[in-house]
Amino acid sequence: MTETTLSDTVWIVGSGAREHAIALALARSPQRPALLCYGSARNPGIQSLCRAYAVGSLTDAAAIAAFAAAHAPTLAVLGPEAPLAAGVADALLPLHIPVVGPTQSLARIESSKSFARGLLARHNIPGNPFFQRFTSLEGVAGLLARYPGRHVIKDDGLAGGKGVKVCGDHLHSIEDSLAFCRELVAAGHPFVVEEKLEGEEFSLMSFCDGATLRHMPAVQDHKRAFAGDLGPNTGGMGTYSDADHKLPFLTLQDIAAAQSINRQVAAALAVDCGAPYRGILYGGFMATADGVRLIEYNARFGDPECLNLLALLETDFVAVCRAVATGTLDALPVHFAHRASVCKYVVPEGYPEAPRIGDAVVLPSELPQNVTLYLGAVDLAPAERGGRLIATGSRTAAVVATAATIAEAEALCERTVAQIPGPFFHRADIGTAALLARRVEHMRSLRATQPLRVGVLGSTRGTALQGVLDAIAAGNLHVEVVTVLSDRPAAPILDRARQHGIPALFLDPAGLKRPAYDALVTEALHQAGAQLVLMIGYMRIVSPSFVDAWRGRLLNVHPSLLPAFGGLMDKSVHQAVLDAGVPETGCTIHQVTEDVDAGPIVLQKRCPVLPDDTADTLKERVQALEQAAFVEVLQDAERLLL
Known about the structure:
It is a single chain. By secondary structure, the protein is an alpha/beta fold. Among the domains are: 3-100, Rossmann fold (3-Layer(aba) Sandwich); 130-196, ATP-grasp fold, A domain (Dna Ligase, domain 1, 2-Layer Sandwich), CATH 3.30.1490; 451-641, Formyl transferase, N-terminal domain (Rossmann fold). The chain has 22 helices and 30 strands. A 7-stranded mixed sheet has the order 26-25-24-27-28-29-30, sandwiched between helices. Strands 12, 15, 18, 19, 22 and 23 form a 6-stranded antiparallel sheet that branches. A 5-stranded parallel sheet has the order 3-2-1-4-5, sandwiched between helices. The longest helix has 22 residues, at 252-273. The relative contact order is 0.08.
């Protein structure tokens, strides 16, 4: 351990449970940093870890900078959104303090809903629903009438989670919607009207140093106060994540799409703001029948999402923060444990609308293994009142449990939360099997109404594609071919696609190594909204990174009965069959893996080898089988989506 490492002083701005989780994660570092905190209140959990603690306004950039100048931290981590929007990161830059948290201009990705929507629109980044910004009531009634029962109204700025109202949840008529708009206009607040999305929400956060992103596991938050997603919106009653870093109702393609949007947004921010985004890029997404859509962006860790994520983080958090703040994240792999996690918040009775204040908070004397407790809105009573921990009105404490499965983590979390007595409540349904089953069934029913979106890679004629197109035209296949991509400008498969009105694109591989070229292909597939990729006469070996991005969703057709004659292509396969004197041949559809022609077999179709066959006649008969095989595989669309 170096002299510099031992003297690290890390400064946390903020004093909620999120910042308690940040402090604990920093304190676990083998670098043993000294910790400082500047909060809006005194959090006993954070204070016990810090050598200095000050209380003040989190939007007073000058006071915060003065604290920094007095204590000379070597690294700063900004927790909540308010100091980011107020320009605290900007105030620290002249002091040469590396900061995890974007500048005021970059933080507009959260502080201005219209800026975030406009950024996606200007840079052709997928995920935007329809939206329009207003500063008055002019034109509002007409737009609401275009989306009756299907709109969301959002305060354009920061509103502490209270600036969003949704049709069906908060707005039950056009008059309700107009009344909320009038309220915003009267307060001088610009607002955005958006098309309402239907699906399941999830959060996907990325560590970002402006150029490199390290993605975190997906998490689902629960905003409503009561079980069954009932009651008023809150700051978040709890969260869960799964051991595979996915969620039970998401597909691998959903995860890949959200990660891709985060990457594109980071790049777009650098262009529009002229500076690298260095901090936590938090996308709030909705998985819908039409793919992943953006709900909103946040410019910091989510609370409670980060309580789950930091409990799972295996990489030294001090090293991660320093890499983010100094633009060196490309040199640091970031790992999270492959375990499930469940977080449940304990909150005062009456929360969020009329919470009790001042009740004693009695925590378990001992926590079970794999359980962490984070303090939120609490304080220590004066000595004359016994110095007890008391609730101050917002989310009081959060319990996070990790285990091999969500069910095990939920049971462990629930047992621990039940040990906290008093006039408090929590959502007992978060992470339960019944709640997860509802989420999964909801997405299954939504996806069942939409065609499976298929992208195709090809270098030749793509004869097998014709069978798919014919089956779609005949109404026998609930599939949409959304794009055909080729590495050859004159590949006949491109003309075949264009004749059927399918977007077709040549992507030039000249001068690019396999991973770089495959990254272009992945972006084009994501832009088209592809959920599944078919390789039909694609004459390139794909990179391991491409396989990983589409694992389980990448199918290839091979003109033999694999594993026999693997590694051969086109007519050389059929000639090898004839030379071997085998009595039958056929085709194989298989998942693509890092090993050529060796992935799991999905389907095989067979035909006899006739005495007078040539390589040409055999190729013709096998191609007919390939067409039928792809149709048969695609008819099982629901299984392919899981």
